[in-house]
Sequence to fold (196 residues):
Amino acid sequence: MRDLEGIVNTGLYINDLSMHDFSRDMVLAGQQQSAELKLALDQELQKSKQLEDSMKKLDSEMKRTDELLYQMIPKQVADRLRKGEPAVDTCQDFECVTILFSDVITFTQICSRITPMEVVSMLNTMYSMFDHLTETHKVYKVETIGDAYMGVAGAPDVDPKHAENVCDMALDMVHVIGDLKDPSTGQSLQIRVGEI
Fold:
């Protein structure tokens, strides 16, 4: 008999084993080791599941971090920095680029008539539309401050048609902003767009 289960299956009891040799001790010691091993295995399985859950959370956070990073600096630069390249080595000169600026006409007056959440919602909708246009026209969004939107073409990817791309984007921005309404009046928003 190697363990208690074997003894029970044969219809014996622990008292049926001899007290004068080590058979009882060996069965009990084996049972104890078996229980300890099972407990250790269960603990390792639980740790493994916790590690797996932590890895999933880490992957999710890494994706969020990447999204935030790519919103702040160009993907090419972010990837180079992530590979360990010194920040100063990622700096580049561009011989010629075109910069786009835009803002909402009477933005301050609009904000005085609507709630802060309506302002956030309006800007979020507007910037989402503009961000979509940057992908279409090969324009990199540099920054947004309040109602001001700034983009550049010809950097970080050199493109000889940078001015044309910005002009096309500016025209599309004026077109799509007509679909966005001032929450206080229901009239279409208007923007100013300029380029350098």
Observations:
- The mean pLDDT is 88.
